[in-house]
Specification:
With about 375 residues, the chain is an alpha/beta fold. It has 2 domains: about 20-290, Aminopeptidase (3-Layer(aba) Sandwich); about 295-375, Alpha-Beta Plaits. It is about 35% helix and about 25% strand. The chain contains 11 helices and 19 strands. Helix 10 (about 310-320) links the parallel strand 15 and strand 16. Helix 4 packs across helix 5 (about 185-190), helix 4 runs antiparallel to helix 7 and helix 5 runs antiparallel to helix 6. The protein is elongated and about 70 Å long.
Length: about 375
């Protein structure tokens, strides 16, 4: 082949490669992360934010307001990426009723508008007992852009879905059966909730969509679409993802992903999802806990011989560090020069190292608690 033709072919090939990779460049520049297999599971909170509309605009339907990620959350899930390439998803119904830290009783989808992602993270940690390593709030456009970037998704629609909301610019008309959904159709599939299943049906469809999207992107024929998918996520999200978290996420996904999904245990009634606390603890312990991470364990604090208020201050410190289940338990006070930790020896040693004091002990712990910290005179 003449030299000129070789140069031309190389230029065309390079231009094509640049065009393919270009959508992912902003994310790569932002995080500049190389894959690193994490030491344990990485828990990422994903939440889709409902758009707001300019209600005083002179046109109808009202146009959407600029996205500021302060709306209620339509979709809430925890994606746990494990070192072997497995992704475990815990879907949380948006109507889950709970005592939200810093606000009070209400539906969990109101945490974001009342206290931002920090309040939402605290609510999810309290509800599930899982420490959250990072969060990402997704705009409404993320669904369409993500699906279009992936070239659509193939899934089976269980039944006819039809709904029209002029003000919300939502028009759903999907027929039952196997479908190849484009971005607008996927948005309708995921947002539909106007039947007897309500929000629970939406949760099931979210899981079906994620499985279909993962299957599509795992195919060697669609690897070239991945940069565009990364770009779609980057321009439609607000997150606190650090370079280290992104590095660990990439490392966890190198071997997969293999996706499984479950719904938060509970019962539906009177327009709310009532969480089953015992069922949640059992599910998290069986499928999501990391035996080497003390943050996932229930911790009891007992003030044996420490200054007044020590247990309360330590509780706040541990919760700020991501410990999701910390309780103060009363026992008779007595002289004790040193703090002891009862429970799993490995977790006790790790927590003692984080505290900077205390030693593992074989004494029985508080009933129903994985770790018990008895605060002695050395407690800080």
């Amino acid at each position: 082949m003449p030299r000129f033709n070789l140069l031309l072919l190389a230029a065309v090939t390079l231009a094509g490669a640049v065009a393919l990779v270009a959508p992912a460049v902003p994310a790569a520049v932002r995080y500049a992360a190389l894959p690193r297999v994490p030491d344990g599971p990485v828990n990422l909170l994903l939440a889709g934010v409902t758009p707001k509309y300019l209600e005083h605009a002179p046109v109808w339907p009202w146009p959407a307001a600029p996205e500021d990620y302060t709306g209620i959350t339509d979709t809430i899930l925890v994606a746990q990426l494990r070192p072997g390439g497995e992704v475990r998803i815990l879907s949380i119904p948006r109507d889950t009723w709970m005592n939200i830290p810093g606000w009070g009783y209400g539906k969990i989808n109101g945490a974001n508008p009342h206290g931002g992602p920090e309040m939402l993270v605290k609510a999810v940690q309290q509800l599930t007992g899982l420490p959250i390593d990072a969060h990402a709030l997704l705009s409404l456009n993320a669904l369409r852009d993500l699906t279009e970037a992936a070239g659509g998704v193939n899934l089976t629609v269980a039944k006819d879905l039809k709904y029209d909301d002029v003000a919300g610019k939502l028009h759903i008309d999907l027929k039952a059966g196997p479908q190849h959904l484009n971005g607008a159709q996927a948005e309708g599939f995921l947002r539909f909730r106007h039947d007897s299943e309500g929000d629970i049906g939406r949760v099931r469809r979210q899981q079906e969509f994620l499985a279909a999207l993962t299957t599509r992107l795992k195919s060697p024929l669609n690897l070239w679409r991945v940069p565009a998918v990364v770009g779609a996520l980057n321009r439609n999200a607000s997150s606190d993802l650090s370079r280290q978290t992104v590095s660990e996420m990439l490392g966890a996904l190198v071997g997969g992903p293999k996706v499984s999904a479950v719904r938060l245990p509970g019962t539906y009634g009177d327009g709310t999802w009532i969480p089953d606390q015992a069922g949640i603890r059992q599910l998290v312990r069986a499928q999501f806990s990391d035996p080497n991470d003390a943050r996932t364990l229930s911790v009891a604090l007992v003030n044996i011989d420490a200054p007044a208020g020590t247990a309360r201050r330590l509780k706040a410190r541990l919760e700020a560090a991501g410990y999701a289940s910390v309780s103060i338990v009363n026992e008779a006070r007595h002289a004790s020069p040193g703090t002891t930790l009862s429970g799993d020896p490995g977790a006790a040693r790790k927590l003692a190292a984080e505290l900077g004091y205390g030693a593992p002990d074989r004494a029985a712990g508080a009933a129903g608690m994985a770790l018990t910290v008895r605060l002695g005179a050395d407690a800080k």
